[in-house]
Fold Chloride channel protein.
Amino acid sequence: RRRMENPGYRSGSVDSLRHRPSDVVVEDDDDDDEMVDIAGATLDFSNTDDDPPLGSGEYFVERGSRAGSMSGAGPGRLVDPLEDPLPGKSKDRDRHREIANKSRQSTVALLHSVSDAFSGWLLMLLVGLMSGALAGGIDIAAHWLTDMKEGLCLVGFWFNHEHCCWTSNETTFQERDRCPQWQSWAEIMTGTSEGALAYFVNYLMFLVWALLFALLAVTLVRAFAPYACGSGIPEIKTILSGFIIRGYLGKWTLIIKTITLVLAVSSGLSLGKEGPLVHVACCCANILCHLFTKYRKNEAKRREVLSAAAAVGVSVAFGAPIGGVLFSLEEVSYYFPLKTLWRSFFAALVAAFTLRSINPFGNSRLVLFYVEFHAPWHLVELGPFILLGIFGGLWGALFIRANIAWCRIRKSTRLGHYPVTEVLVVTALTGMLAYPNSYTRMGGAELISELFNDCSLLDSSQLCGYKQSNSTSGAGVGNGLADRPAGVGLYAALWQLALALVFKMMITVITFGMKVPSGLFIPSMAVGAIAGRLLGVGMEQLAYYNHDSAIFRGWCSPGADCITPGLYAMVGAAACLGGVTRMTVSLVVIMFELTGGLEYIVPLMAATMTSKWVADAFGREGIYEAHIRLNGYPFLEPKEEFQHSSLTADVMRPRRSDPPLAVLTQEGMTVEEVEALVESTHYSGFPVVVSQDSHRLVGFVLRRDLLISIDNARKRQEGVVGASQVVFTEHSPAPADDAPPPLRLRGIVDLSPFTVTDHTPMDITVDIFRKLGLRQCLVTKLLGIITKKDILKHMANDCQQRPRLHPLQL
């Protein structure tokens, strides 16, 4: 199969090639036609070595190149699947027909038929249970280690801060987080919690623990599972489009990613666990597929399971099962039949139930950021909501460009050779700048929860530092607290939030893409939530001091609860996440599941669509598509429109200057000739034609099947030698008296390969590849063959030759 290699990963890719096992052939090819540059990433199509499927458990970096691969910026090797989706589905239908026919013959066969029918649902049940249990454990462990940076529970070191003070009777309302059972590191070491020395000790211990967690995370990733770094969603999208990254969904990746995700989140880096949880769920699904024969031996059906697992990952990350299903459908999956939709829904339900049973948040709710806003939103507020959408779109476009530029610097300079140093430096920088500001010191999820909070009368949060107005001392309309003038505490909090906004925007750019598990949902939502809270407080004060103006007259009377700053934070979070990922429907559903704010769907929709439109004006790619293109993965983006006017003949191989197409004839070739053809090429398969003179197509045979069949025939079939005739017809001609027996290989031929004519427009051909998930397509009368990588090369070359259109012109 063909390997994708990016020169930006110079250290990783070169090391992995240098340590490549001896049974893998690497062909040196200096032909410029085999290399193509796509948006700064070079794709190498010169090698076509075969690899095992994604469930094989083989892990090529385990054989001596783990460390080398980690000094690059991502997976160093990508391979094609062993079968196309549709032939795989055809085999599954044949298997179903056979089971159905046998079920009428005996009770045992009937029971086998029933167990086969329910095996898919059983697999979804196991995926949901395993993913939910792992997600709950990750949440609990991350919360505990995050609190450990600030202090220790004297009752039991395994308790986090909140659990430690739950049973204490000595907490006050103003200081509910302070109890004798929980002591800061300054109290443990110096006996006091006040003064410059105590602050310095707490500051130092915060940095030491953060660096220790980060060091453990990057070391474990580098030593045991290089594929455990990053988000995982770009690679999952690539795998679901029909390609395999060997070892990416293996057991070592699952174990190391689960452990290092806890450490990375606890280190205080500006990252989240939501994207990596999708990777964790897909690893669980891939491993559990080995328990069921029909999934273990069928790559097409296994990709359906991975689509459902992606939904499970979002379900356990946010407590949003419906949003998870829509996320898999809108953002991740390449092929999503109705049966996969049902099973995704069931698996997401099981995972959410499992997470709810574990109750990692300690609030007896499934949602992560539960809100109770008492005031309804007004039509006038759509203006600020749209402004937040514009901000989210601009931030998303800016972040994508800045992050991709930083990743290119990481790959093309010596920075990529020192991933451990990079992680430690960024962690130290993050810790030193984050600790003095209480809003950057706390974890991302805790910060978002604080920003979504609607102030109550006795709320002790600094964001609720309002002055008490005599005229509005009572409750406002709708049982909410009336709008009040901002006090000194609120102004101080706003300054801290403004500094936190700048800090988060800058540090997230250099954090995403490092060699630790790193998600982007929580950091993006934090940026939007801060901006939204700032705008919400500004609107609240504007309404308080100008309630007689034309804008507020009629719906915001004095003493009323008109503006809810927490709602603005929620809308801003959705806008920024939408600008970065370009999600729409799934994002809105995730947000109202995440918060329980079903009443605020319209503001969320308005902000999300606005952010997508604004971000699309600067580039159509979301962050995951941008990283796919940067890493050089063979992925045909289904959302893009094909703008070229070329024909299939312009793209297919061979071209005029190329050697003729390597084919097999249905009869007349010997075993020796077939083996010589296979050894002289590295193609993944060969067309079978009537004869060398008449290139009328008979079918297509995979290289792997051909080699296995010949090898088995030599071992088991008596008389098969190099001079034996290889026959692909149903009825072979009678052999001569002294000739060795023929080798009949009709059974391994795909008699219905997908074909197009040489005059088929390329936009139709691209749609065929996208919608059917093809790896290659033959051009008839057999003139050549066209592959997905040929299309990618053609699109890249055409983009370089023609003037670039503004996205709004497309």
